Amino acid sequence: MKNLLILSTLILSAFVSPGQSLTLNDFLSITLTPATKPDNRLLDYGFVSSGRQYEGDTTVFSYSFRRIVSEPGKLTTITRKSISRYDIAGESSILYKTNLPTEFAQIKEQAKRAGFICYTENDSIVPSNLLYQKEDMTVHAFQTDGDDSMQYAFHIKRKLLPRLKNIRYAEDLLQFTSHEYLAYVFGEKNVKKDVYFFSENELAKCSVLFLNTDRQVVFLWEDGTNNCKLSNLLTGGQQMLKARWSTTTLSGKIPGV
Length: 257
Fold this sequence. Notes:
Layout: H1 2-14, H2 24-30, H3 40-44, E1 48-55, E2 58-69, E3 77-88, E4 91-98, H4 101-113, E5 129-134, E6 137-145, E7 150-159, H5 179-186, E8 191-197, E9 203-209, E10 217-223, E11 228-235
Antiparallel strand pairs: 1-2, 2-3, 3-4, 4-7, 5-6, 6-7, 8-9, 9-10, 10-11
């Protein structure tokens, strides 16, 4: 059996040509292994280790790929790609950059097919700065200036979220920094999107855990568009929600809505 597994691995590796594009599934699979552990898949795809760097207390393991294609009578093309793996407690994080716009389009399409949610995909103002979310994973797609050409980047994260049995105190909930994280752990039926009213003219997008119960918790989002980046956590059965706001105001409507 062991020999059969080795043979299968060799056969699969043989079909991976250097420079072949990594898929979103490849990256998500790599996030399941520690950044400190070398991944042979990167070598199979033609990447070589560029060593490690330090960003504050974070260790970054870097890999690079470069291919030059020069044919008589044609323009010389240079393909540049890089991968950075971050050793961060509680999170598996990969930054992938490529100078190929086709890969940018392909990986975004792969995210859609895999069921990732993107709230701004149809917003023409930010077509190249998109956040895809699913369960404990996020994919941030954006463009950045490279040394001599545009770079297309993906920041792929897998959050290490606590299990229900390990959540005992309010402080444990601070790890849930998006609506999707909450729904993934607590179940979609127990988490509702809502609006929190500080006043008639000041409001914020929020998610409510265990709405209308004695365990109700309100998560206020700094990024209300994508329902993420926790700005505040409110416990104790808060009543200033759209779902609970009295419609008997002077205007007869919920203020700000």
